[in-house]
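Data's thin. Show one?
=====
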Amino acid sequence: MNSRPDFLFVVILAATAAMPAMAQDPARSPGAPSIPDFSGIWSHPSFPGFEPPASGPGPVVNKSRRPQGADIDGRTLPAKNDILVSNPARLVGDYSNPILKPNAAAAVKKKGEMEAVGIVGPTPTIQCWPEPVPYIFNGVAMQMFQRPDTIIFLYPNDHQVRYVRMNQRHPPQVTPSWYGDSVGHYEGDTLVIRYGGRQNRAVRHG
């Protein structure tokens, strides 16, 4: 299998949140680009779902909705209410989202059509498989450990771990695996992670 990455994962976090950590880096020469400190625990504001980016097209949303079960303070809401949120029991992704490449859009469309008529499509969770990117983002939270040469992602789902080798290339031949081969670099205050070599059975999350 060639090393051409089949996905691009871009993590963009507010640089202001990392300013104290950047100011504490005495090894960085004056004028050099500042690297944010992403170490810590990160979570979604809701489940399932992703907050929209500051600009540009947002994440693929679930077109199947259900009434929200609780308010922001955790108080139970009436079973029937007008606050509609993503329905985790029926995942019908918006395959028209411009962030999807044609093959990804086709996969999301196919899975959504199955779920819309009550056919639960195979997922790593149902099959008891490891949960690769991007499926693992369905989890509520993750923890990041940031080193100069490696970034480690620790997920609560079955204690799964992902390693990202920084400022390195994929090997000429990537051995297919559940998590693939992840390499990363910084573009200013943006962490860019590319990965390839993922097994075909690692289902995309619709």
